[in-house]
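Quick note —
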Amino acid sequence: MNPLLTVEDLVVEFKISKAKFRTPDGVSFTVMENECVGFVGESGSGKSVTALAIMGLVPKPQGRILRGRIIFDGTDLLKVDEHPRGKKISMVFQNPLNSLNPNMKIGKQLTEVLEEHYGISHKQAIEKVVEIMKQLQIADPEEMVKRYPFEYSGGMRQRVMIAMAMLCEPKLLIADEPTTALDVTIQAQIIQLFKQLKSQSKTSILFISHDLSVISQIADRIIVMYAGKICEISPMKELFEKPLHPYTAGLISSIPDMKERKTRLKSIEGNVPSLIDPPSGCRFHPRCQQRMKKCVESEPPLFSIKGRQVKCWLYEGVED
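Predicted structure written out below.
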């Protein structure tokens, strides 16, 4: 497989009042062709901002890309005048009700995408929309295009957003917490939908979630983020069998196990640090049970361990 997306040393800076903070802060990773990469981490870790930077949608004037490269399909997106969003890169946002115009019929919102990018007639666009909806197993699409978003459930609205994202047959689909507002049954259906898209359309997916159990159902590789930094990059199976970073181990141990009866769930002690005044050294060290003096004094690099990467001093001297 070849890299479809390569992000190198990406830093996004925000200024709020007189305070400044960076998230993501020096993030590097790749997404291969026909691969699903899961991005997981707590709120504020930089997952969604990384996605917005790839899409060229970092909110201004509060935010700006301070440095880095975002190379998509051989082109640095930070150096092009016309961003390929919508056509080659699409994004599905967390809340479909906020993403869809409540005053406009669903069909009109979807056909606008095709009319804008391909200049086809409204009739041709409607036919294409109905075809995509049928592929996504949306019931009675001919009727749905005539109705408004509020007439449907959250799960159906999310399917509409996925249909909108797939209309131009993008090479990369970014899904930002697409199952968060849905119940468990609908979550499973949406995840199955993404799996279907990956296998049938050969679309690469960057799937963002704060829920590691959701990520595990779809991702080939998982990137774990904490306080603006990448902690670990690993194939999904290896990550669950043997997490390398103490933060990753904490996340996995906090997932409820239906086979065990427990009175209290495990949690990671402490709180996520402020990005305005982050801790010295490793940003996880204030909450880490295995911290050493070196963890406080200096930030570790990403060590390579048998095809995996981990940002932790515990692995100094044992890397590839």
